[in-house]
Amino acid sequence: MDPISLAFGLILDPYVLTVMLAAGGFGLFMGAIPGLSATMATALLVPITFFMEPVPALAAIVTATAMAIFAGDIPGALLRIPGTPASAAYTNEAFAMTRKGRAELALGISLSGAIVGGLFGSAVLATAAPVLADIALRFSSFEYFWLACMGLTCAAFVSSGSAVKGLVSLLIGLFIATIGVDPMSGHPRFTFGNVEMMGGINFIPAMIGMFALAEVIRSVTATTPHYKAPQEHIGNIFKGLGPVLRRYKLNLLRGSVIGTLVGALPGAGSDIAAWISYAVGKKFSKEPEKFGTGHPEGIVDAASSNNAGLGGSWVPALVFGIPGDSITAIVIGVLYMKGMNPGPTVFLYQPELIYAVFLSFFLANLMLLPLGLAAIKSSKQLLLVPREVLMPIILLFCIVGTFAINNTVFDVGVMLVLGLVAYLMEENGFPIAPAILGLVLGPLLEDSFITSMIKADGNLFAFFERPIAAGLGVVTLLIWVAPLFFRLRRGKVEPAKASGADE
Q1: What 3-state class would DSSP assign to 295?
Q2: Closest to 436 (Cα-Cα) out of 110, 146, 178, 172
Q3: In contact, 112 and 106? CB cutoff 8 Å
C-alpha cells in the first residue's frame, strides 16, 4: 500500500479525529484569552502527547495552534484586545468595524481568511516543502538585517496620521527592545540595577498592556462614550461576506503567499507575517486612507497571513529541523520524542507519518469553519455584558494571563507600565502599532547587524556582497528613497503647472 493511502488511514482513525476535536476546543479557548497564546497552548499539550502515538500527538498540536491563532481575532474585534500576537496587526481595524456595528463582517472575514490562508499554507507545505526550506536556509545575518529593515519600514504604512508621530512611536518600541543585556559586550542596558530586566521585555506582556490595559484605562477615564455602544448581538457572519471576498480576492491570495513565505523563514512566524501583509495591503490599496477606520481590506490580507504562516513555519522544522517560530521549536522536541527525527531522511523512512501530518493541516483548517463559527456565536455574550462589569474581568484575565507566562510579578509590572504609556501615547495622537512593530523586530535588527559586522570585520559593503542580501538591500533602499524622489518630482511639476497657468 502506498504511503498516502496509509496516511489517510492514520488520520481518519476515530481516535485521532476525537483528539483533534478536543485539541480544537482547547486551542479556541487559549487563543481567545489575552496572554494565553498559541505557543502556550502548544507547550501545555506537550505533556499530554507523551501518552500518544506520533500522528494524534502532532495532529493535536496542529489543530490547537490553528484554532488559537484564529481565536485571537475574536477579542481583538469585540474588545480591541488581541488574543494572540498574530492578531495584533489588525486589531484596531477589526475593532473599528465593531464600533460601526459590523462585528459579524469583521469576524466573518477573519474566519474566511484563516481558512483560506491555512489551506494555502498546507498545500505549499505538502508540495513545496524542500524548495522553500532550501531558500530559507540561504538566509544569513545579512539577509535578516535587510528583512528587519524592510519590516521596520512597514511602520510608515501601518500608522495613520502624522508620519513624525509614527516615527516617534517606532523609536519608543525600538528603545524598549534594547532593554536587557547588550549582545556584544554582555553589559546590562537600561536595567537600573534590576536583575529581572536583564532578560529584556517579554513581548506578550507588552502587547497585553499596550492594547488591553490601555483600553481598560480609556474606558474607565472616559467621561463620555468615545465610540458607539457595542452591538447587542452578532448576526449572520456570512451576510455580505461574498462580495467582500470577491472584491479582495487578490488580497486574499497575496496575504496567503506572504504568510507562507515569511513563515518559512526561521524565526519569523505568523505575527511578523501579519504585520508585513497589513502594510503591503495598505501600500497597494486604492483606498489607503480608509485603513484604520474599519476597512475590510485591512483585515483580508493580514487574516489570511496568520494561518498561512503556520504551515510555512513547519517547512524548515520538518525538512531540516530548524524551527520557523516558537511553536515549531516545541514541535521539533515532540518529533524527536516520537522517534521522527526531523530532516530529509524522515521523508524516506517514515513517509506515511509525514503525509498524515500534512493531511492533519488540511483537516484542521476545514474544522476551523464549524468550530470557529461556534466560538464566534458563543462570544456574542461579551457584547451583552455592561462595560463597567466587563472591564474589571478583562483586567483580571490580563493579569492572570501575564503572570502565567513566566510565573513572575515582574511581567505584570511590565504590562501595567506599558499599558499606561500606551494610553498616554494614544491620548496625544501617537499610534501604538509602530511601537509594537519596533518591539518585535528590534532584537532581530540588532542581533543580525552585530553578527554581520563581526563576520565582515566592520565592512558595510558586505551587506551587498551576497545575492539575496543585495536584492533585499536594494529593494529596502528604494522603498526609503522613493517617497523623497516623488516629493521632489511633485515639487518640480507644481511650479511648472503654475508657470503654464500664468502664461
Answers
A1: coil
A2: 172
A3: no
Grid cell at residue 217: 484605562
Task: Give the H/E segment covering residue 263.
Answer: helix 249-263
Are the CB atoms for 26 and 41 separated by under 8 Å? Answer: yes
> What is the torsion angle, in degrees rounded to the nearest 10, for the CA atoms of residue 271, residue 64, residue 73 and residue 171?
-20
The phi and psi torsions of 180 (rounded to 5 degrees) equal 135, -145
Q: What is the H or E stretch that residue 363 is in?
A: helix 351-379
In the prediction, which pLDDT does 7 show? 83
Q: Which residues pair with 121 in a beta bridge?
A: none
The neighbour count for residue 378, using CB atoms within 10 Å, is 13
Q: From residue 374, how far is each of 181, 203, 382 by CA, in Å?
A: 45, 30, 14
pLDDT in tens, 416-460: 999 899 889 888 888 887 887 788 778 888 888 998 998 888 888
Amino acid in the structure at residue 173: G
Cα separation of 161 and 286, whole Å?
18
Average of pLDDT values for 302-313?
A: 85
SS3 assignment, position 236: coil
Cell reading at 366:
476545514
Contact at 8 Å (CB) between 65 and 334?
no
pLDDT of residue 442: 83
**Distance in angstroms (rounded) separating the CA atoms of residues 291 and 93:** 7
* Amino acid occupying residue 354: I
Cα–Cα distances (Å) from 253 to 28, 48, 313, 315, 369, in that order, read: 25, 36, 18, 19, 19
- Asked if 279 and 227 touch (Cβ cutoff 8 Å), the reply is no
Which of 107-121, 265-279, 347-361, 420-434 bottoms out in mean pLDDT, i.e. has the lowest? 265-279
Query: 264 — phi, psi (to 5°)?
Result: -75, -15
Q: Report in angstroms the alpha-carbon separations of 181 from 192, 195, 198.
A: 12, 10, 5
130 touches 319 (CB < 8 A):
yes
pTM, rounded to two decimals:
0.68
Q: What are phi and psi of 221, to 5 degrees?
A: -85, -15
Residues with Cβ < 8 Å from 330, sequence gap 6 or more? 39, 42, 43, 46, 61
Q: Is the dihedral of CA 75, 78, 82, 84 positive or negative?
A: positive
Provide, for the chain, the percentages of residues in helix, strand and coil under a 3-state DSSP scheme, each rounded to the nearest 5. 75, 0, 20
Q: How far apart are CA 56 and CA 16, in angstroms?
A: 5
Residue 329 has a CB neighbour count (10 Å cut-off) of 17
d(CA 257, CA 269): 14
How many angstroms separate the CA atoms of 252 and 270, rounded? 15
Taking residue 427's Cβ as centre, other Cβ atoms within 10 Å add up to: 12
**Which residue type occupies 88?**
A
Q: What are phi and psi of 189, to 5 degrees?
A: -125, 130
